[in-house]
Write a structure and sequence with these properties.
605 residues, mainly alpha, Serine Threonine Protein Phosphatase 5, Tetratricopeptide repeat, six-stranded mixed sheet, 31 helices, DNA-binding, repeat, PPR_At4g14850-like_plant, zinc ion binding
DNA sequence: TTAGGGTTAG
């Protein structure tokens, strides 16, 4: 009855302005009214009133109106999935649109498993999925992550012949990427006939999330070669992340330039990524300038800045920024405190570190995690307080992990405390450490103590576990390209000229009073062999390459995977004065800025 | 008839 009256009303409305309409078009006007009612809603109260009105007008029986009702309730920011479900359950006609809507609602609500259940119900009811079904469903699989379900879904897509839909393909790339299946992820991308920027974005983000940084940069090049280059902040953030990890400052700078030219008003994520890139690529000054100019800083921006200062050895400055953060009313979290403790650690601020550690719990209610204990062990260990570090480990409310023992082992090595080193190593081996470096450090400590039998025993132990030493490498950026050198490298195309340069460097170093610190070569070989091995360390090769291929006076930046040895440290200090170059070296934990014969770490690292 | 993919940082 109600529906008839509505039909009548709309018919009258139309017939005033237009020639008589067919009953079908008049019915559409009922739908239009429904849509306009729903569009006006901005909260659940208003929505409920519109819902009542729609029921009263008899529009709920119309599939289009009911569907829009569900969609509005399920997908609006102010909506409610419970309410949407109750409407959904009352509907007579359930097709793919209705199911797709419910799935989207569940995914939006982070209720991903419910989205998969909805898909299952869809199949059970014999409703055929369409091309709109899969992007949502794959997003759910990606988020869980549920690669097996994702692959089943992929099979359904092939069965239904939807594999050429670009939206479906992009979702597949993203799903496989997030599930760590980079091979299939690339295969889907390769098979695409037509790609969009989102396809590249999904692919680059997938590589970035798996730490495949070099591939990220290669793909960015491929993307621009295929003419897909446009200002896409999200892609550039992934690329900046790659630059950060690889230490590719020049490329990072060009991304910055591109952003300045093409994007007006950088958002806080892009700005923070830029700051992190500058800080971790060695350009502390530039990172600091950008940070100071930021209009709005959040907790993450402060966190990045504090950790950056820590890496550069500016502990006190890091603590100052931390105070500023608190003054701004920003509440620190556990990760900010990791940065703060690291800042203390790298600058040898033992008392300050202890104060912060206590303050974290007392003032901010943050229970120390194993990571914080790790920072404290590192702080004490670096400062030579090995016994205190060991005491702290024993007093922890949780079981110490390999990271902690490794930190103690490393400190024992630096401070020549073989007894503590043996304790740490024993615990590491008990935890079934699969890191060859743990065996190598202990073996090196025995070597330093001339205990060659123990050296042999440790090495045999290591080999019997099938472990081999990860080679140390140094990366150096020349003309926006990263060049990689390993120790005693002979594989670089310009190896010959590098060794020639090395010879010249050593000749000049002799005049500065340099003599190779052969105690750093921990093998039972003769002095000449030791000298030979020292001179071929990857950092020296990288510096030689940079001296040949960069203009006089320009800075040299190196990224290494391991801590540098004392000899490389002394050597680099002298090179900085002889060749008048600023040399920045980033290892796994921190930066060393070599200038005029001195290092920013003041030999504390 | 309705709608969908890539949202990035410590």
């Amino acid at each position: 009855m109600i529906r008839t009256s509505v039909l009548h009303q709309t018919h009258v409305l139309v017939s005033r302005e237009d020639p008589p309409q067919s009953p079908e078009l008049s019915f559409k006007l009922g739908e239009k009214e429904c849509v306009s009612l729903l569009k006006k809603c901005s909260n659940m109260e208003e929505f409920k009133q519109s819902h009542a009105r729609i029921l009263k007008l008899g529009l709920f029986g119309d599939s289009f109106c009911a569907s829009n009702l569900v969609a509005t309730c399920a997908l609006s920011d102010w909506g409610s999935m419970d309410y949407a479900c109750s409407i959904f359950r009352q509907m007579d006609e359930l097709g793919s649109f209705q199911f797709n809507t419910m799935m989207r609602g569940h995914v939006k609500d982070m209720n991903t498993e419910e989205a998969l259940i909805t898909y299952k119900e869809m199949a059970e009811r014999g409703v055929k999925p369409d091309n709109f079904t899969y992007p949502t469903l794959l997003k759910a699989c990606a988020r869980l992550p549920a690669v097996e379900e994702g692959m089943q879904v992929h099979a359904h897509i092939l069965k239904l012949g939807l594999e050429n839909d670009v939206f479906v393909q992009n979702s597949l790339i993203s799903m496989y990427g997030k599930c760590g299946e980079i091979g299939v992820c690339c295969a889907v991308f390769e098979q695409m006939n037509e790609r969009s920027v989102a396809s590249w974005s999904a692919l680059i983000t997938a590589h970035a999330s798996l730490g495949m940084w070099s591939d990220c940069l290669r793909l960015l090049g491929d993307m621009s070669n295929e003419g897909y280059w446009r200002a896409e902040e999200s892609i550039l953030v992934s690329v900046l992340s790659a630059c950060t990890h690889l230490g590719a400052l020049d490329l990072g700078r060009s991304v910055h330039g591109f952003l300045l030219r093409n994007v007006s008003g950088l958002n806080v994520i892009v700005e923070t990524s830029l700051i992190e890139m500058y800080l971790k690529c060695g350009s502390l000054y530039k990172g600091m300038c950008l940070f100071q100019k930021m209009a709005k800083k959040n907790k993450l921006s402060y966190s990045v800045m504090i950790s950056g200062l820590a890496m550069h050895g500016y502990g006190r400055e890091g603590l100052r920024i931390f105070t500023e953060m608190l003054e701004q009313g920003l509440e620190p979290d556990d990760i900010v405190y990791v940065g703060v403790l690291n800042a203390c650690s790298h600058a040898g601020l033992v008392q300050e570190g202890l104060q912060c550690f206590n303050r974290m719990k007392l003032e901010h209610g943050i229970e120390p995690t194993i990571q914080h204990y790790g920072c404290m062990v590192d702080l004490m260990g670096r400062a030579g307080k090995i016994d205190e570090a060991l005491e702290l480990i024993k007093s922890m409310p949780m079981e110490p992990n390999d990271v902690l023992w490794r930190s103690l082992l490393s400190a024992s090595k630096v401070h020549n405390n073989l007894q503590a080193g043996e304790i740490a190593a024993k615990q590491l081996f008990k935890l079934d450490s699969q890191k060859a470096s743990d065996y190598v450090v202990l073996s090196n400590m025995y070597a330093q103590a001339q205990r060659w039998e123990d050296v042999a025993k440790t090495r045999t132990n290591m080999f019997s576990k099938g472990l081999s030493q990860r080679p140390g490498f140094s990366l150096v950026e020349v003309k926006r390209k990263m060049h990689r050198f390993v120790s005693q490298d002979a594989g670089h195309p310009q190896s010959e000229s590098v060794y020639e340069m090395l010879y010249q460097m050593e000749w000049q170093l002799k005049f500065e009073g340099y003599s190779p610190d052969t105690t750093q070569v921990l093998c039972d070989v003769d002095e000449e062999e030791k000298k030979q091995r020292l001179s071929g360390h990857s950092q020296k090769l990288a510096i030689a390459y940079a001296l040949i291929h960069t203009s006089q006076g320009s800075p040299i930046r190196i990224v290494r995977n391991l801590r540098m040895c004392n000899d490389c440290h002394t050597y680099t200090k002298l090179i900085s004065i002889i060749f008048d170059r600023e040399i920045t070296v980033r290892d796994r934990h921190r930066f060393h800025h070599f200038k005029d014969g001195a290092c920013s770490c003041r030999d504390y690292w």
